[in-house]
Amino acid sequence: MQDDLRDHMITEEPYYQPTADEVELYEAAYSVRMPMMLKGPTGCGKTRFVEHMAWKLGKPLITVACNEDMTASDLVGRYLLDANGTRWQDGPLTLAARHGAICYLDEIVEARQDTTVVIHPLTDNRRVLPLEKKGEMVEAHPDFQVVISYNPGYQSLMKDLKESTKQRFGALDFNYPDHETETRIVAHEGGVSEEMAGKLVSVAERARNLKGHGLDEGISTRMLVYAASLIAKRVEPLAACRMALVRPITDDPDMRDALDSAVTTFF
To answer: Pick from 100, 119, 194, 198: CA 20 to 30 A from residue 111's CA?
Structure first.
């Protein structure tokens, strides 16, 4: 293990509840180093899944939160000035490729397309990364894999992946878990009883039915864990739900009233 990657090892098992055969499918994909795309709504467990699989496989995980200001140099590396002149510093993608980590590009559509094309030679049979500024061709370590994620609900002509990018990946669809599974997750992560967690999940299910009818996105599993964590700290459930579930997702007064009514139904 390279010293550069020791900080990227996940030493404790991240809690993850499988919803189908995604664990087995990912293991098969990793065995042939297939680049993977995780598609699903925000806060449904995509990042936790990658963390769990990196732990299960015993591989370091380097995560990059993509944004529109990210450049290709932010991914591959750049020359830096120091007391001795200039030195090259690998970016997260190069570090992962060079030493054999899983590189996870979270919400990749937030990055510009001219930035994300740098992953192309790593995600086909070449498995190389040209460092043009350095004049080096990095051959990917046998353990290296690229994983990307995005929310198809936010697709637009301006924010979508090129077909030439999509077709380099296998894909797994994610969604919010079924009621019983999500209840177990919220109870475990939020530190509340399963009865309380079940009520929170019921509120979320009501809100998710409003997606496309006044809401851009439903209440995520992540938000339910936030609410549960507040309740575990003895915040009154109605107040916790309003702060963690209702107020973040809408400013529309009528929609807030409808969601507040859903909360009072269960609390």
So the answer is: 100
DSSP 38: E
Choose between 141 and 216: higher pLDDT.
141
What is residue 157's predicted lDDT score, i.e. its pLDDT?
45
Residue carrying the six token digits 């510009």: 112
Q: Which two tokens stand for residue 74?
A: 């932010």
Alpha helices for the chain (secondary structure H): 3-6, 22-31, 46-57, 72-76, 92-99, 113-116, 163-166, 179-190, 194-208, 221-232, 237-241, 253-266
Identify the DSSP state of 154: G
How is residue 176 annotated by DSSP?
Answer: P
Which residue type occupies 101?
A: A
Query: Which pTM was predicted?
Result: 0.92
Q: For residue 168, report the phi and psi dihedrals to the nearest 5 degrees.
A: -95, 0
| H or E element in which residue 133 lies | none
Residue recorded with tokens 């090129």: 162
Q: What are phi and psi of 104, to 5 degrees?
A: -110, 115
Burial class of residue 34 in the structure, from the number of CB atoms within 10 Å of its CB (0-12 exposed, 13-18 middle, 19+ buried): middle
Residues 6+ apart with CB under 8 A from 24: none
Over residues 212-222, the pLDDT tens digits come to: 788 888 899 99
Parallel, antiparallel, or unpaired: how do β-strands 145-150 and 36-39 relate?
A: parallel
